[in-house]
Amino acid sequence: MLTITEYLKGICEKFEEHRNEGTESMRGRKSGTDQLKNRDPRLKSDGSSLYSDLAFQQLYLLKYAYEYGFEYLSMCDEVIEDFADKEQISVVSLGCGTMLDYWALACTLDEREISRPVIKYHGIDAIKWDHSLGAEVRDKDKKTFKFSQESFKNFFERQDNRFNTYDIYFFPKSISEFSKNDMELMLNNLSEMEKNTIYFCISLRKAKKGVSNSDVKRVQDMMDKLEEEKTGFRVKEFKCMAATKTTVDQLKEQGLRVEVEKNDEFIWSSKDGDPKRLDLMRLGAKKYIWETDVAQNVGGYPEIPEELLYYIEKLRKEQAIGKEEQAMRRTTYICDLIIKFERR
Questions:
Q1: In DSSP terms, which residues pair with 336 in a beta bridge?
Q2: Helix 306-317, helix 4-21: angle, nearest 10
Q3: Are 237 and 338 in contact, with CB atoms under 8 Å apart?
Q4: What are the DSSP E strand ranges found in 42-157?
Q5: What's the sign of the alpha-carbon dihedral 53, 180, 230, 232?
Q6: What is the pTM of this model?
Q7: List of long-range contacts for 259-263, beta carbons under 8 Å, 24+ apart
Q8: How far is the C-alpha of 241 from the C-alpha of 76, rounded, in Å?
Q9: In sequence order, which residues have a C-beta less than 8 Å from that of residue 35 and are 6 or more positions away?
Q10: pLDDT digit string (tens) for 219-254?
């Protein structure tokens, strides 16, 4: 598989080429950081989105792909052993973007020397990203790899979406993008799941004051739906990966109810309940993600090569991308949920 540093180096080179060519999307673009902060990237009613802008895509990936790649590697590391003897891992990614979650799953299989499973991957996104890692699909996965360029609404309204057939449900920083109608449609699709064991891997974005209340509610709604008597599941395992304990505390304060029975104890059971098994949480005590226990559990994160730093430094001096390299190394927020459901 392509390494994350090779991937980012290629994006830097392409960004520089396009800027030197004076393409339409590069004209007048000086502060990439301001572009990321001050413009709404979400899909509009007319089908347009800032994500469709090639220059924005490249700036976005330079700022976030290093961090996101680590998060998805960490989540895959938590579930992969359950699939070591399986013939296939079926995955649907809602808001797949450049398919970094597929890359992370394939890398985790390689790192663990788990050769048996084929990855059956279905990525859903309203935007087709130019720097998609779909081009790096393993040979054994090519027949089962699929991308659908469509909105969540269109996907969930299709009778043939087969949403109820997957092993792993990935939400790669995408749950914030779900409208109220999208959520209602998805919850309806959760009512008749085929598998007896399913996994939800949810990576949450940072809101202004930490974890988003609305995102926590969306997670709880999904859990409640799957635990309804008709649907017939219960939470078997719940893992929260966070850079600090504060993030976990925010989840509890916002009312996320997790009732996970493990050794006759609960991780936490109500808004006001004290966590009884914090050792089950995957927490890091240090400031930067790369220094946390989570990072060390997956072998740490590689140093950014000098040639990649050269491109980033060159762009920064020309005020093209701001402090992107610093963002790569010093991300201080992470909130990932890995929820394993089993049929009662």
A1: 203, 241
A2: 30
A3: yes
A4: 88-94, 118-125, 145-149
A5: positive
A6: 0.84
A7: 259/235, 260/235, 260/236, 262/237
A8: 12
A9: 29, 50, 55, 56, 59
A10: 999 999 999 999 999 888 888 887 777 887 888 888
